[in-house]
């Protein structure tokens, strides 16, 4: 019996993240109103920051899946909510970059497709980037068989 390819997997934004961003937007508006003291500038600035947060939260709701893999390749998010299909031959490298700054370590999954580089953080994937990289490499190896 020939080996079966791994099932398609996808990684998405944690479901609590859009709600947290929306709540933060409401807090910003409330703080702007609270500290306005008759001045419109704090309200406008808080409103602009809240609008940016709500736009960011909307992206998480409209396009929650950031990365998907199957036997033919990878699908990544592109732009606000678009998708881009990367067949395995187009994927040059899958690696995890670790950067330490001020005692904090940040990991970023990098999918290098030659003319484009796709970056994913922990909160884009709702999983450790190293774990996702291993799954991508396993799927790529299975597709090469």
Structure description:
The protein is of the alpha+beta class and 145 residues long. It has 2 domains: 16-61; 65-144, PH-domain like, CATH 2.30.29. 42% of the residues lie in helices and 30% in strands. It is built from 4 helices and 7 strands; from the N terminus they run βααββββββαα. The chain has helices at residues 16-34, 41-62, 122-125, 129-144; strands at 9-12, 65-70, 73-78, 82-87, 93-101, 104-112, 117-120. Strands 1-2-3-4 form a 4-stranded antiparallel β-sheet. Helix 1 packs antiparallel against helix 2. The longest helix is centred in the middle third of the chain and has 22 residues, at 41-62. It is elongated and about 70 Å long. The protein starts with 8 loop residues before the first strand and ends with a helix. The model has no long low-confidence stretch (mean pLDDT 92).
């Amino acid at each position: 019996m020939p080996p079966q390819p791994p099932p398609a997997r996808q990684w998405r934004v944690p479901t609590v993240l859009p709600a947290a961003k929306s709540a933060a937007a409401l807090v910003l508006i409330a703080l702007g109103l609270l500290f306005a003291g008759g001045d419109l500038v704090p309200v406008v600035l808080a409103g602009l920051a809240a609008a940016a947060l709500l736009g960011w939260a909307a992206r998480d709701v409209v396009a929650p899946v950031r990365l998907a893999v199957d036997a033919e390749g990878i699908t990544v998010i592109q732009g606000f909510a678009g998708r881009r299909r990367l067949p395995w031959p187009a994927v040059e490298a899958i690696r995890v970059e670790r950067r330490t700054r001020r005692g904090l370590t940040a990991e970023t999954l990098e999918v290098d497709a030659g003319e484009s580089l796709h970056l994913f953080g922990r909160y884009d994937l709702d999983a450790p980037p190293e774990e996702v990289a291993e799954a991508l490499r396993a799927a790529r190896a299975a597709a090469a068989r």
